[in-house]
């Protein structure tokens, strides 16, 4: 199994631009999570999906952030417009055994907004 | 709701010395407990987990953790550390009786001194 695959690994963009982060979960996993990691705030859960349906988006910081999961093998996290304070590492994780049993994380996307 | 406290943000240890990383949790229900490791520029990787049964849990890379219900702790230990153990370690908790997301601690950075 290739694990959770995220792309791109690094993204540098100018303030105001749209940014799209991508995630492919492990095949057969029906839960998908998006996290953001910064030095100041640590690891924050942004949103999670079950069977492609968003279940809890209470961690999404503001309307500039949106996430979709059009099918079981693909999810996107979009920031529009991006701001310097969005600079962080964004992780995707998936689980095939519910939300409380342990997750498999991707390698992350390091986003820098200048 | 659950919460997790990692008492040390950084722990320096000499190579080949033993180490203990402390984790305490709070929960009104029974829990699952996890330790994840994050090597530099990588995603989080599951080190070990306690679901039920023996309170001493063995994980990868020679790490082990002990679940202590009376002290609500789940400390991580290794008898002899190596330079390759340099990483950030995250303790996490979830409720065992329902489908709810895992709560992560703020992490402990392990520095191995030569």
Q: Compute the number of helices of chain B.
A: 0
Mean pLDDT metric of chain A: 94
Q: What share of residues of chain A is helical? A: under 10%
Strand count of chain A: 11
Task: Sketch the topology of chain A as an H/E string, one letter per element.
Answer: EEEEEEEEEEE
Strand content of chain B: over 45%
Largest β sheet strand count, sense and barrel closure of chain B? 6 strands, mixed
Q: Topology as H/E string of chain B?
A: EEEEEEEEEEEE
The Rg value of chain B, from CA coordinates, equals 14 Å
Distance between the termini of chain B: 41 Å
Please state the structural category of chain A: mainly beta
End-to-end distance of chain A, in Å? 36 Å
Low-confidence stretches of chain B: none
β content of chain A, as a range? over 45%
* Structure summary, number of beta strands of chain B: 12
Based on CA inertia axes, which overall geometry of chain B fits? globular
| Class per helix and strand makeup of chain B | mainly beta
Rounded to an integer, what's the Rg of chain A over CA atoms?
A: 13 Å
Layout of strands and helices, then pairs:
The complex is a heterodimer of chains A (114) and B (114).
Chain A: E1 5-7, E2 10-13, E3 19-24, E4 31-38, E5 42-50, E6 53-56, E7 65-71, E8 74-79, E9 88-95, E10 104-105, E11 109-113
Parallel strand pairs in A: 2-11
Antiparallel strand pairs in A: 1-3, 3-8, 4-5, 4-9, 5-6, 7-8, 9-10, 9-11
Chain B: E1 3-5, E2 10-14, E3 19-21, E4 24-26, E5 31-38, E6 44-50, E7 56-58, E8 64-68, E9 73-78, E10 87-95, E11 103-104, E12 108-113
